[in-house]
């Protein structure tokens, strides 16, 4: 890891309103999770299914919010290199285009990891303090859900960094982000086999809870599938950024 390059990417974020977009992501997911709880009069705060309502809200909120905002974050972080010929400038200082992409992923990935964990903890805290859910929270399932959503978020982020680096017109990257949002949401109604076909479909495989007939129920998390996605994505990201290293800046 090129630590100075990663630090430089954090410095660039100060001018890109990353904090504003990150706050929007957290607020939107937390609001959707709480809405799922308060909008259903059948939810009993004295029953453990109330936690499932919050998990179901996050399971919908994250796919609805994250794909587009991740595309925006990756696009803004990468577009400055196209605008200011930063690829060539960094290459003259010894940092290859692929190395720069990896530095961007390390910096943005840390931000996305913090945002994903924070929104999960805020929903957990809101359920206990604001809503007053009495039974103990299912911390194991909650942590597994957070980890799965984080993995998918990082995969989508890595993909958008590659797209934004390769295609100068950032409207293409943002358009793919909009398409990804639609695929992430509609994949929840598709068979699991179809959900495996796109990175955004894996959001539905990390569905932690859903409404069934008259109550919210816990759903199993597809740990093997999401682990496989993470490994394949890491391999492909390494291969593609290595190819960038061999191209002219």
From TrEMBL:
Keywords from the named record: Membrane, Transmembrane, Transmembrane helix
Source domain of life: Bacteria
Transmembrane segments: 18-38, 50-73, 105-127, 139-159, 171-190, 221-240
Pfam families in alphabetical order: ABC2_membrane_4
Protein name, per record: ABC transporter permease
Organism from which the protein derives: Kocuria coralli
Lineage: Bacteria, Bacillati, Actinomycetota, Actinomycetes, Micrococcales
């Amino acid at each position: 890891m090129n630590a100075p390059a990663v630090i430089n990417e954090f410095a660039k974020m100060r001018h890109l309103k990353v904090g504003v977009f990150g706050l929007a992501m957290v607020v939107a997911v937390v609001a959707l999770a709480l809405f799922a709880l308060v909008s259903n009069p059948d939810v009993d705060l004295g029953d453990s299914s109330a936690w499932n309502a919050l998990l179901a809200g996050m399971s919908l909120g994250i796919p609805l919010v994250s794909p587009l905002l991740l595309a925006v974050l990756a696009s803004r972080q990468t577009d400055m290199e196209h605008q200011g010929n930063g690829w060539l400038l960094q290459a003259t200082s010894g940092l290859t285009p692929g190395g720069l992409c990896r530095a961007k992923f390390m910096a943005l990935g840390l931000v996305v990891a913090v945002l994903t964990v924070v929104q999960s903890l805020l929903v957990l805290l809101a359920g206990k303090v604001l809503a007053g859910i009495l039974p103990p929270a299912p911390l194991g399932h909650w942590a597994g859900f957070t980890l799965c959503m984080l993995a998918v978020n990082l995969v989508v982020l890595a993909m958008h960094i590659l797209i934004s680096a390769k295609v100068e017109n950032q409207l293409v990257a943002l358009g793919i982000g909009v398409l990804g949002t639609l695929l992430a949401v509609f994949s929840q109604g598709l068979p699991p086999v179809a959900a495996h076909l796109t990175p955004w479909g894996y959001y539905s495989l990390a569905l932690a809870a859903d409404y069934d007939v008259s109550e919210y129920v816990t759903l199993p998390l597809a740990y093997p599938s999401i682990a496989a996605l993470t490994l394949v994505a890491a391999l492909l990201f390494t291969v593609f950024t290595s190819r960038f290293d061999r191209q002219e800046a």
